[in-house]
Write a structure and sequence with these properties.
The chain has 255 residues and is α+β, with helices and mostly antiparallel strands. Helix content is 55%, strand content 25%. The chain has helices spanning 2-22, 96-101, 106-122, 127-132, 134-149, 168-210, 212-228, 240-254, and strands spanning 23-26, 30-36, 39-44, 47-50, 56-62, 66-76, 82-93, 154-165.
Length: 255
């Protein structure tokens, strides 16, 4: 009788241990990919689920967004400039079944694919585009990477290029180029200013030529401005229609 009691107690303890070993608790952001005798059965979770030991196996999958830091990559741009570029990739698992069955390690696979995609996309662009059109390059890398990881049940939400590092010689060359560009713009602005000033002077001359009184008033205004300066020399401009007859008379007297 005592042996039967021990056997029954042991059996109950064994059942309790099996039940406890069968229970799994999955958080809201977790899913369990369950295999029955090695074959895929279903995706379970979140909450309390039962996995029969020895018959079923479960692999946990985190559905939260993963921030993947892409190491610095040596990239040769389309204009043959060597740069080092690093980036960050934001992705998450949207299909746990594909993420576990289709690829051995989706984190490592996504990291390696992000590195090769970064080099491939940036190698098709010039250095100026890498520096000035970073948003467009981010979108191109994100689109291409998302298409390639779709078969793994992964959604790439965003890609951001963090740094584009140049060597010192290239930095000096870019600085010289920027300085030359600023000098060119300054010359163009100066030339445009001269052209606009010439146009305004031409318009003023046309307005003054319509009325002789306007020219006389301009003479008086000029004399007022000269008189305000502390100078002992005053230049008084005279119109040619006044000086012309005087010069002709002087020539006749000499003859």
């Amino acid at each position: 009788m005592f042996n039967m009691f021990n056997f029954g107690l042991g059996f109950l303890v064994l059942i309790a241990l099996l039940v406890m070993a069968s229970l799994r608790i999955l958080r809201e952001y977790e899913r369990g990919v369950v295999f029955l005798l090695g074959r895929f059965q279903r995706v379970k979770g979140p909450g309390l689920i039962v996995v029969v030991p020895g018959v079923q196996q479960m692999v946990r999958v985190d559905l939260r967004t993963v921030v993947l830091d892409v190491p610095s990559q040596d990239v040769i741009s389309r204009d043959n400039v060597s740069v080092k570029v690093n980036a960050v990739v934001y992705f998450r698992v949207v299909d746990p079944q594909l993420a576990i069955i289709q690829v051995a390690n989706f984190l490592e696979a996504t990291s390696q694919l992000a590195q090769t995609t970064l080099r491939s996309v940036l190698g098709k662009h010039e250095l100026d585009e890498m520096l000035a059109e970073r948003d467009k390059l981010n979108l191109d890398i994100q689109t291409l990477l998302d298409q390639q990881t779709d078969a793994w049940g992964i959604k790439v939400a965003n890609v951001e290029i963090k740094h584009v590092d140049l060597n010192e010689s290239m930095v000096r060359a870019i600085a010289q180029q920027a300085e030359a560009e600023r000098a060119r713009r300054a010359k163009v602005i100066h030339a445009e200013g001269e052209m606009q000033a010439a146009e305004k002077l031409l318009q003023a001359a046309e307005q003054l030529s319509k009325r002789t009184e306007a020219m006389q008033l301009r003479y008086l205004q000029t004399l007022t401005q000269i008189a305000g300066d502390k100078s002992s020399t005053i230049v008084f401009p005279l119109p040619m229609d006044v000086i012309g007859p005087i010069l002709d008379a002087l020539k006749k007297t000499k003859v």
